Structures are given as C-alpha cells and as structure tokens.
Amino acid sequence: MGAQATRPRLGHVAVPASDPHRLGRFYRDLLDLEIVRENGNAQVGEAVLLSGEPAEEDHELVLLTNPAAQHLAFRVASLEQLRTLYHRANQQGLRIPYALESGVALGFFVRDPEGNALEIYIAQDSPHREKPPLTDPDEIDRLILASH
After folding, report:
1. 72-85 per-position pLDDT tens digit
2. Per residue, what are the HEC states of 82-120?
3. Residue 30: CB partners within 8 Å, gap ≥ 6?
4. Residue numbers of the domain that contains 40
5. Which of 5, 12, 34, 115 sits most deeply, having the most CB atoms within 10 A of its CB?
C-alpha cells in the first residue's frame, strides 16, 4: 500500500465469554452498546455481537463461547486494499486458514507471530447471512481475488 492508501483500522474485537448473552447485556446496560445479533455456529460457539454505531460498523465487540475463535479484526477501505494485503500475506508465507463472506464483511484470517488470530476485511452492505468459512486455498483465492 502506498502512502496515499488509508491504513486499516480496528473494526472489532472477538473475546471469549462463558455466558455471552449475560455479558452482552452487561455491555448494553453499562455502555449503551446495541446488541446487533445473537447467534452461533460450530466455529465460534454461541455469540453475541454488539456495536456502538451499527449503521457505521455492524459489530465492534463479539462475545463468543469458543476461545479458539478469539481474534482482532482490521477493516480496510477498499477491495483493492483487501487484495493488496491478501497478496502481501501470501508473499510473506503466512498461512490463510480460512476466509468468509457474510454479507456484512468479506475477509480472510491469518495468525501473527505470537499466534493471535487476525481478520482483515472490507465491510459490505448486504444483509447478514450465516455461511461457513471457506478453508480450501483455491476457494479462498476465488473469494478474495474474484469477488465483486
């Protein structure tokens, strides 16, 4: 990315919670965060997603029961920037374990040198939909490189 490109910004944090529904109510009642969705799947377990500005960022805090799904997520401004970072991750030899397209986001995951999961995504304006993440490298390439 050149000097003109907008740097990625922190989009959301996903942290483990033994009772994400109770904890979601805590953040709603204390900080006036809006509970955007309560759902779950095999990857994250039960999950509660919250946002202070749902019109601007679908979710900023994710509370989930599967500690292995904990991650930091950085939002990029354009599909071109997403693809640039995808190519950079591949060039650096980073393993991309999965990618997703949920309607509200298109992105991929890597791990930093300490083993922390990192999501890099672009926001989308479609309604949220539950789709399993893609794990096949060729399918991930098609999703990120041929989307839109």
Report:
1. 999 999 999 999 99
2. HHHHHHHHHHCCCCCCCEEECCCEEEEEEECCCCCEEEE
3. none
4. 9-69
5. 12
